[in-house]
Amino acid sequence: WQGLAMGVGQKLLVPSPLSVVERLGGIWQEADFWGTVWFTFRKIVAGFLLGLGFGLGLGALAGRFPLFEILFRPWATMIKSIPVASFIIICLIWMSSSRLSIFISFLMVLPVVWSNVSGGIRAVDRNLLEMAQVFRLRRRDKLQKIYLPAVMPYFMAACTAGAGMAWKAGIAAEVLGSTRLSIGGKIYESKIYLETVDLFAWTAVLIVLSILFERGFVALVGWLGRRMERRVRAS
Fold first, then answer.
1. What is the pLDDT of residues 192-207, one digit of tens each?
2. What is the 3-state secondary structure of 34-71?
3. DSSP assignment letter at 145
4. Which residues, including other chains, have CB under 8 Å from residue 62's CB and lie 6 or more apart?
5. For 110-159, what is each residue's pLDDT tens digit?
6. Separation between Cα atoms, residue 26 and residue 122, nearest integer Å
7. Cystine design at 151: which of 44, 82, 97, 120 (Cβ 3.0–4.6 Å)?
């Protein structure tokens, strides 16, 4: 990066790492910094959690009942196939830019979680299910001791992939929607006013937020999964 900045020799095109670090040292002291970060964080996290919840429910139905798999698969395929930019521009007609990042994040996370959860349920060992039927295990016991251990690796993979997609899609929605008081809006303003150092600095803030959220959420889910597994073994 430093070599490229020295080779180009124009701060407007490629700012040096030092200039970006210096800007980061001052950007967090600005009056609207924390408000901007909080606005983007809560919108994207809300969309991610909505996608996670709906994807988990629809995935459970699709994995258990083939009819739901047949009904929802065309929609999931369509969502995954259409470019994010197209969704954003279409949705700008229907809703305000302040809500756009929630919906776009939700839309991108939903098919990822759905496909992983439904695949995990279909991958459950049929011999275990037959054994549970022979011993007449309660539905709760089957869920805790058979389905959850089988689905958890798939769900963890969905959380990891979905978190990254939620942040990328949500920020793209903020940029194209020129959402005020958002990180995407700041990135758009940096591009308009040719403030390349600010563009790099806000991108660095975004990367840090995305990584911290992804790792924190995956660690939380993993901890809950291990705790549930210990309870199952104890019972």
1. 888 999 999 999 999 9
2. HHHHHHHHHHHHHHHHHHHHHHHHHHHHHHHCHHHHHH
3. I
4. 68, 69, 72, 73, 114, 117, 118, 121
5. 999 999 998 888 887 777 767 767 667 777 767 777 778 888 889 999 99
6. 52
7. 120
